Amino acid sequence: MKKLLLPLFVLTQFVFADPPDWETEFDPWMYEFAMYMNVAVLSDVDGTIMGNYWGDMLAAFSEDGTVRGIGIPLEVPFGPFMGETLWELTIGSNDMFGETISFKYYDASTDQVLSINEYYMFLEDDIIGDLISPEIFTLGEAECENYDECGVCDGPGAVYECGCSDAAENYDCDGDCVIDIDCTGTCGGSAVADCCGVCNGDNSTCSNCCGSPFYDDCSDDCYIDDSGECCYEDQVDGCGVCDGDDADGSDCNYDGVDDVCEDEYQIGFESGFFEGESTGDVNHDGDTNVTDIVMIINNILNN
Q1: Under 8 Å between Cβ of 276 and 256
Q2: Quick one: pLDDT at residue 17?
Q3: Rounded distance, CA 78 to CA 131, Å?
Q4: How far apart are alpha carbons 200 and 32 in whole angstroms?
Q5: Which of 72, 110, 157, 246 is 20 to 30 A from 272 via CA?
Q6: pTM of whole model > 0.70?
Q7: How far is CA 217 from the centre of its chain?
């Protein structure tokens, strides 16, 4: 049973890992010259020889990052490295000599791309290492394609202080909220104050236009007229009526007669009117009598 489970475990690791696309990026027919290497890759942890046939990869690169060779894993059948996995590399170049070649190693068990500390100068037809005495590669730091703003590989991002990776969501390493706090004091909450300044209110506690639950406009010029209608200040006429026609407020009953003439005694033809109707009570003493008739005649004679 153990013999069956071990290969299954290794295969599962390979299937769920995310290996790089080095093999598809490498085209050996693009290069005129070649050099050859046989290498052993040593772990940076305990110095053991790396090599997982089911998923590990080794590749050579030029200075501009172009893939120049893909390692072939070989299980050594004899000699001092018998039973170990070594790597055979054919490295391509269009320069016969002098190009700097670097290397990277993909560890399928950790799903990481690691740098190789060693690098070499390309030399046409050069052969470095063999199965008895391979060239030794040592692993360096993990490569990363997705650094956050703090330079952390696959890190949580700039909302956390650099070096901190265990802060709670929406909080920095000091426990301070790094996004908006709502009116209840909840970090990242959705509660908002209404136009009256009440948290989660319904605009019903203030007397301005915005205090009506039927309006959600919090503009400063929002206004309620004398009839209780909600509108803006530039819509209110001189009588306090929304969309009214009396700009100066002189005829607030809209009867065509100046309100001053209707409500106070004045000599003139407008005297004796109230809200547009003739009362006959020219002197506004509450009675219609001979005095009112004399005053009307006097008004006519004086025109």
Answers
A1: yes
A2: 58
A3: 9
A4: 73
A5: 246
A6: no
A7: 27
What is the percent of the chain where pLDDT is above 70? 61
Q: Would you say residue 201 has pLDDT above 70?
A: yes
Q: Which residues neighbour 19 within 8 Å (Cβ) at sequence distance 6 or greater? A: 55, 57, 106, 108
Flag whether pLDDT at 248 surpasses 50.
yes
DSSP bridge partners of 70: 59
- The CA distance from 81 to 40, in Å, is 9
Is residue 112 within 8 Å of residue 56, measured between CB atoms? Answer: no
Lowest mean pLDDT among 4-18, 156-170, 278-292: 4-18
Tokens 């790597």 identify what position? 87
Which residues are within 8 A (CB) of 119 and not within 5 positions of it... i.e. 6 or more apart? 100, 101, 102, 103
CA-based nearest residue to 61, from 26, 112, 24, 111? 26
Which class for 303: exposed (0-12), middle (13-18), buried (19 or more C-beta within 10 A)? exposed
Torsion of CA 158, 163, 169, 174, to 10 degrees: -100
C-alpha span between 152 and 211 (Å, rounded): 50
Phi-psi region of 154 (alpha: psi -120 to 50; beta: other; left: phi over 0): left
Residue pLDDT, tens place only, 99-127: 999 999 999 888 888 999 999 999 999 99
Is the pLDDT higher at 142 or at 124? Answer: 124
